[in-house]
Amino acid sequence: MIGLISATAAGAAASERLAAAWPDRVRVYEGPVGPSVQRAFGECTQLVCFLATGATVRLLAPLLADKASDPGVVCVDEAGRFAVSLVGGHGGGANALAHEVAEVLGAQPVVTTATDAVGIPGLDTLGLPVEGDVAGVSRAVLDGERVELAADFAWPLPALPPQVRGGDAARADDAAQPGTQGAGGSEAAPTPPAGARIRVTDRALEPAVREAVLRPPSLVVGVGASKGAPVDEVLDVIGAALADAGLSPRSVARLATVDAKAEEPGIVEAAARLGVPLVTYSSERLAAVDVPNPSDAPLAAVGTPSVAEAAALAEGGELLVPKRKSAPEGRAAMATCAVVRRAPRGRLAVVGLGPGARDLVTPRAKDELRRAAVLVGLDQYVDQIRDLLRPGTVILESGLGAEEERARTAVAEARKGQAVALIGSGDAGVYAMASPALAEASDDIDVVGVPGVTAALAAGALLGAPLGHDHVSISLSDLHTPWEVIERRVRAAAEADLVVTFYNPRSRGRDWQLPKALAMLAEHRAPRTPVGVVRNASRADESVRLTTLAALDPATVDMMTVVTVGNTATREIAGRMVTPRGYRWQQDPDTVAAEAVEAQR
Ligand code: SAH
């Protein structure tokens, strides 16, 4: 329950808004604030005080006992501008509550807890289970202490600050520092033992002092079960297999079995209790997997000589525990399992940054940037978002023209098991990096695309509604596409009466293509057809011009520009470019053709 305490009319009004938004979560305390805070502190798990921070601190001070058990407290100022996480940021959930309150009230959340405020990932926010001295090691990271990163294998982690480094690399770097050489100058001085350590492992070890253990989802457990096998028996055989092999159940990524067992209650329930998905494969697919212990029983029952081993190995990996049977007392075994360590899969996020303005970068794009350990992109785009990256992100930037190389680099980094973000302006799939990257990528990495606002849409919004009916984008760059092909497409768009947005319309060395393309459209569209010329959409020196096919001066167009040509129905209405949604308003095509002929005389 969240206790709400207010003193003034404005505070009471804001408190009512929260109460209306969360009717089942809050309790409103009325009367003098001192006793209210005291009662709420004892009765609630969280408090929102519509009071100054100073007043709240004085009221709370005598009540505070221990950050593990005290309620989290958020303060909201009189004007409702800020929701301040005051105490219990993590344990009391005040940081999260501050965000929630801010959302409801349209306020700004204020969070001052160290890891959150400086954008360093708390170890518990990396998306992996973590054990051990999480607070102590997070603290060490935050204090800039060198923290050793000991990973049993590469796993796509988000960026960690530079002071978190692999043991060998760290030692080599230290040895290279001036002044750390031994007396004779030929031997490196012994490295002082690293204090804190982050371990990345699926082995079932107890975290040492000042050690946090991250559990990558690296294990796949193949299971087989006879009809009606009890869930406990399935869980027992899995538990025993993991324990005997010294593996942590928290690294289990999924259970796997044959299609015929997709509904087997013992298996379905075991997956649910372990909190992992169940994947199934056809018996043909499993029969084709090479396994060490095939047998006749499953072949007869479900049509594959192996279920547990084959399902565990279906996506490749290293067999750590060959098939073993359950050992129920007094009857025959009904469950089998096998454990595989899958190869680490890198992650390639192809992220569109939008046309330029920060508020046109989608929240999902921001999340992906913060999730990456390696960022690959054109230098000028990297500059656009550098401040959004987590400290420690490795940035591989290159200049114009190095597209192929960037694509190869991004894929190669992902193949090493890294979390990589490959960025592009607008949408990264539109005349941009997604195609060369995915042409290069094989199925051994995960690929995630994040759509961005492409230039045609950014320009469309500035011009009015030019894309209200069927439209097409055409790049006029003949660097990679023969001009004949471009010309054929422009002609087809002209004949099909499509609204056309020209990307890459004109550069210093490429100046005849745009007039030529416009002339082709003019054969089918009236001279007064609206044309929008948008330069640097959503950037500092944005310019928007509305002109016509006849009046457009190509010299005003450059590579920062898109040119949107209306169809025969597009009109200028109140200074805006509007393409009607239906053909009902469309002019008689004969009139249009006649106008076009006239214009050419
Ligand atoms: N992936 C990008 C397009 C890359 S091609 C996107 O989806 O927007 C480069 C061309 O895009 C430029 O020559 C220009 O024609 C257009 N362009 C990109 N950003 C633009 C912007 N902010 N304003 C106007 N045109 C832009």
Automatic annotation (TrEMBL):
Domain of life: Bacteria
Keywords of the record: Cobalamin biosynthesis, Methyltransferase, S-adenosyl-L-methionine, Transferase
InterPro entries named among the record's database cross-references: 4pyrrol_Mease, 4pyrrol_Methylase_sf, 4pyrrole_Mease_sub1, 4pyrrole_Mease_sub2, CbiG_N, Cbl_synth_CobJ/CibH_dom, CobE/GbiG_C, CobE/GbiG_C_sf
EC number of this enzyme: 2.1.1.131
Domain Tetrapyrrole methylase residues, every copy: 348-552
CDD domains xrefs: Precorrin_3B_C17_MT (cd11646)
Domain spans labelled CobE/GbiG C-terminal: 219-339
Region span, Disordered: 164-194
Pathway(s) annotated for this protein in UniProt: Cofactor biosynthesis; adenosylcobalamin biosynthesis
Domain Cobalamin synthesis G N-terminal: 37-116
Top class in the EC scheme: transferase
GO annotation, biological process: methylation
Any one GO molecular-function label of the UniProt entry: precorrin-3B C17-methyltransferase activity
Membrane-spanning segments: none
Pfam family for this entry, one: CbiG_C
The name this protein goes by in its record: Precorrin-3B C(17)-methyltransferase
